[in-house]
Amino acid sequence: MSEDGASDGARVVLGVSGGIAAYKACEVLRGLTESGHEVRVAPTRAALRFVGSATFEALSGNPVRTDVFEDVPEVAHVRLGQRADLVVVAPATADLIARAAHGLADDLLTSTLLTARCPVLLVPAMHTEMWEHPATRHNVATLRARGVVVAEPASGRLTGVDSGKGRLPDPDEIVDLARLLLADPAALPRDLEGRSVVVSAGGTREPLDPVRYLGNRSSGRQGFALARVAAQRGAEVTLVAANTADLPVPAGVELRRVETAEQLRGEVFAAASGADAVVMSAAVADFRPAEHAAHKIKKTGSDPAPVELVRNPDVLSELVEARRTGALSTGLVVGFAAETGDPDTGVLEHGADKLARKGCDLLVVNAVGDGRAFEVEDNAGWLLASSGERRPLPHGAKSLLASRVWDAVGGRFVGN
């Protein structure tokens, strides 16, 4: 096992069906191989009209077959699925989804889907009308009922002038979902369907002048992972993101961009009304400059004037208080605490104190500094509950930690 919990050198079958998004499968393939996995590509005949087999062979280092009558002595149409640790189909067209739902096995890819006993991830890509058609919705529901993970597609530009839901998610997002399923095959249940959640992410920036600001090192990756996993578990997700322009928008997520703590507070409160859960993973600046200079502050021969700071709103505490008084109808409130510890008090104790002060239902405590948590791909910590329960969150990919948080949130929804 690697540090993120995913199996080292896992055997992955990458299916590619015949849509224009097939070219993006090359980036998915590269991401999987660079993660150390052995990948066999199983394209449909139509997929090879978009991307040639030579490309897939060069990137995977393995031969490419499409037909059950090729490589007959190896019984490839059975062996690929039997030996796989994960099957990913990206893109999965409406036709491929229909054939998989009805158990057809007329080529190597659909035969592999029938023989696979490992996790299967289908990543749809098609025009909006096809995705929303009752036949496709029925086929998707059928596959999900069988335990297949059918990802939510993204929204955006399709082919030609068309735009809407049905776009293939960003290749990095697909690779992240694949790695998550390798680390935990049960990480993406559809247990949040019908739920509305709000996630804050990133680090706020408080302007000093038009050039400079007071900020922090949060990249937003953990918040984006929380939003991505929640959407793939069926939730309606609003993501309030502070200064995260370099991160692709997760598929199936409504994104609201902000910069400052005041802006974040306004968007979170607007989205939180009626939400089943609010997860405050953003690093909200505690202070801001008392004054914002209209022009760039120039360096002069004298010492710079001291910068006076004032407190920013405590968004987490305000959410809890608004819920208590009935001013805001929202469900669970989950906070995050980035702690370093000090000579007298450890990280976990600081987190427990924050949970008591803030009054939220759950609190994720992260140890930060020395290359931990901020600006990296992995995370670890503890999940503290208002009931007194303390649950370790082992080191792993941020999407894996996100799934553990939603496990806890979803568990509290049961029976409600």
TrEMBL record:
GO terms for cellular component: phosphopantothenoylcysteine decarboxylase complex. Coiled coil: none annotated. Binds 1 FMN per subunit. Its cofactor is Mg(2+); FMN. Residues 192-409 form the DNA/pantothenate metabolism flavoprotein C-terminal domain. Pathway: Cofactor biosynthesis; coenzyme A biosynthesis; CoA from (R)-pantothenate: step 3/5; Cofactor biosynthesis; coenzyme A biosynthesis; CoA from (R)-pantothenate: step 2/5. It catalyses: N-[(R)-4-phosphopantothenoyl]-L-cysteine + H(+) = (R)-4'-phosphopantetheine + CO2; (R)-4'-phosphopantothenate + L-cysteine + CTP = N-[(R)-4-phosphopantothenoyl]-L-cysteine + CMP + diphosphate + H(+). Its EC number is 4.1.1.36, 6.3.2.5. Pfam families: DFP, Flavoprotein. The keyword Metal-binding applies. Keywords: Decarboxylase, Flavoprotein, FMN, Ligase, Lyase, Magnesium, Metal-binding, Multifunctional enzyme. Residues 11-176 form the Flavoprotein domain. GO terms for biological process: coenzyme A biosynthetic process; pantothenate catabolic process. GO terms for molecular function: FMN binding; metal ion binding; phosphopantothenate--cysteine ligase activity; phosphopantothenoylcysteine decarboxylase activity. CTP binds at residues 286, 296, 313-316, 336, 354, 358. Residues 1-196 are annotated as: Phosphopantothenoylcysteine decarboxylase. Residues 197-416 are annotated as: Phosphopantothenate--cysteine ligase. In the C-terminal section; belongs to the PPC synthetase family. Catalyzes two sequential steps in the biosynthesis of coenzyme A. In the first step cysteine is conjugated to 4'-phosphopantothenate to form 4-phosphopantothenoylcysteine. In the second step the latter compound is decarboxylated to form 4'-phosphopantotheine. NCBIfam families: coaBC_dfp. This is Coenzyme A biosynthesis bifunctional protein CoaBC. The lineage of its organism: Bacteria, Bacillati, Actinomycetota, Actinomycetes, Actinopolysporales.
